[in-house]
Amino acid sequence: AESRSRISVIGTGYLGATHAACMAELGFEVLGLDLDRSKIDSLSAGRAPFYEPGLEEVLQRNLANGRLRFTSDYDEAAAFADVHFLCVGTPQRDDSDAADLSFVEAAVDSLAARLTGPAIIIGKSTVPVGTAGRLTKRIAECAPPGAEVHLGWSPEFLREGFGVEDTLRPNRIVIGTDSPAVESAMRELCAPQIEQGIPFLVTDLPTAELVKVSANAFLATKISFINAMAEVSEAAGADVMKLAEALSHDDRIGGKFLGPGLGFGGGCLPKDIRAFMARADELGVEPALSFLREVDAINQRRRARTVDIARGLIGGSFAGRTVGVLGAAFKPNSDDIRDSPALHVATAIAELGGVVTVYDPEALDRAKQEFPDLRYAHTMLEAVRDAEVVLLLTEWAEFRDADPDELAKVAAQPRIVDGRNALDPQHWRDCGWTYRALGRP
Ligand code: UDX
């Protein structure tokens, strides 16, 4: 039982770093591993390599009390614990929509080959259904004789920006496994959450893998549903915000993830629905998920529509026109710019000849690295200064709370496209702004 108090976490990205820190917070001894030395150095110094509210406090507290350490050495991780969580990334492949499993496979190979006794590996990465089954065979081939390895899959549902909260108090815990040893290890490791009454579901491996991708597919579908209604509302002169509000009072529908606007981006939803379709194709059930093709298309159309509304506002052409963009991160409370709708729109306008200046409270450094040709401002006012049209593309609180009078003083023309339905149209109009939003008259 003593060894159960020690775990390793392989991969220290958004998921792994948060998981490692939170498991230490819950009282376990944790060794986090990543081959990226710069991440390890940063985490060991109590700095999160990305913006995640609350994470650094948890990191620092548990580094100080000695429950949390980081390493790049697989030998150390293999020897440290007998339960290992796999948290490496599964990005979209360069050559197709499928998930790139090379990091998962490399991690499993590296770990399994170094095990010296029985061990449990629990995958948390988002993987195509069937992956865990294949990994079971792969592990059996790599692991030395005597090292009996049991595999489980426990998908992670954390949202960036709420990573600590979601990890300490998830809506549910799912563990897929055929092994009673894995189930009992998970029950011990999740005891603090089970005691709080958080549902704990045991499934087979493929079901656990599917829970994650189907949850993300559902969320993406819900967003695209309301964005499809926004498209219709625009054509019909209806107000999708009122529509969404009215729908949300039906508790079978609910109001969450029913926010119309520029749509979803980030490192999860877009790639996960594409990888899910690719996997359905391989399984011979492609028609079952063909609706996700529409979900993706609706989502992409919102970006094009946002560009069109802004172009319309300035008389039909962006050539040489000054454009202020508020937001670069794919959503507020994150500095993640992977598949960011905001930067997609900003670059599209720049390609059409617009002189685009972007401001974001947290994501500027990453944006500059990835899109060096855009202009960047270090304050909201600077981005709006001299702009002939302003676009709000990520709904940071700083933008929601912005004073329209103050911004009107520096803008060349008080025109705004609210890509996230984050502002009060009446208030902005009263302050002299030409206000346009997605899905509203
Ligand atoms: C998502 C899932 O929520 C999480 O459970 C999973 O583990 C990983 O993927 P995340 O990508 O961090 O999390 O962000 P989320 O808060 O889900 O937002 C995703 C995107 O949808 C963002 O671009 C957001 O702006 C957009 N969104 C969300 C909307 O456009 N409308 C909404 O109503 C809600």
Automatic annotation (TrEMBL):
Domain called UDP-glucose/GDP-mannose dehydrogenase C-terminal: residue spans: 324-425
EC numbers, comma separated: 1.1.1.22
Catalytic activity: UDP-alpha-D-glucose + 2 NAD(+) + H2O = UDP-alpha-D-glucuronate + 2 NADH + 3 H(+)
InterPro entries: 6-PGluconate_DH-like_C_sf, NAD(P)-bd_dom_sf, UDP-Glc/GDP-Man, UDP-Glc/GDP-Man_DH_C, UDP-Glc/GDP-Man_DH_C_sf, UDP-Glc/GDP-Man_DH_dimer, UDP-Glc/GDP-Man_DH_N, UDPglc_DH_bac
GO biological process, one term: UDP-glucuronate biosynthetic process
Residues annotated to bind NAD(+): D34, K39, T90, T126, E160, K271, R338
GO MF terms held by the record: NAD binding; UDP-glucose 6-dehydrogenase activity
NCBIfam families with a match to the protein in the record: NDP-sugDHase
Official protein name in the record: UDP-glucose 6-dehydrogenase
Source species taxonomy: Bacteria, Bacillati, Actinomycetota, Actinomycetes, Streptosporangiales
